[in-house]
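Limitations
The structure tokens in this dataset are predictions for the assembled complex, not deposited experimental models. Users should treat interface geometry with appropriate caution, especially where small molecules or nucleic acid strands are included. An illustrative entry is reproduced here so readers can see what is and is not provided.
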Amino acid sequence: GNSVTQMEGPVTLSEEAFLTINCTYTATGYPSLFWYVQYPGEGLQLLLKATKADDKGSNKGFEATYRKETTSFHLEKGSVQVSDSAVYFCAFDSGNTPLVFGKGTRLSVIA
Amino acid sequence: AAGVIQSPRHLIKEKRETATLKCYPIPRHDTVYWYQQGPGQDPQFLISFYEKMQSDKGSIPDRFSAQQFSDYHSELNMSSLELGDSALYFCASSLRGQGDGQPQHFGDGTRLSIL
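Predicted assembly:
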């Protein structure tokens, strides 16, 4: 069935370190892929998206590339900040269907 | 820009009581989704509406019902509340009519606590 697998956390990094959060998906058809971020006590905010193979989504220094051949959508950032500490969710939909989420990865960035 | 508005932000109920959660989507968005997020969990889809008609149904208990009104706001009605219903309930909206790949925009959620 449809599912998202993302690396388990928590991930703890020092400020300015390089971040990668792996995400792979299992879906039928041609899903649209998303990364959402959830700060403590807040709702889910769309971070970036990609709607077709080889598309790169980017926002606030974060990037992810839609890799159909490996069914992956890994999140990267070259230099993390303390303010990036949050839970990151990888998700997809298949044509405006309800989102299927991964379990979330908690990121803690220390100064 | 206007966002998804949910009310109330916090709600405390006792077992077997009822609760109503409200959601006001982004203006002109035609689709509303409801999700439930337990502590430390990923959001789980409950139910959705497109143009005021039920669209998809997920893991929504029979004790819960929802509807979307003529002004596009939606309400999630929960009855015979159980301890396990304590969770964060999110509403999201999107503009499905614009085609595939439309992102869902989430509200800040309603935190429901059952005593």
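Some entries come with short summary sentences. For this one: DSSP finds no helices and eleven strands in chain B.
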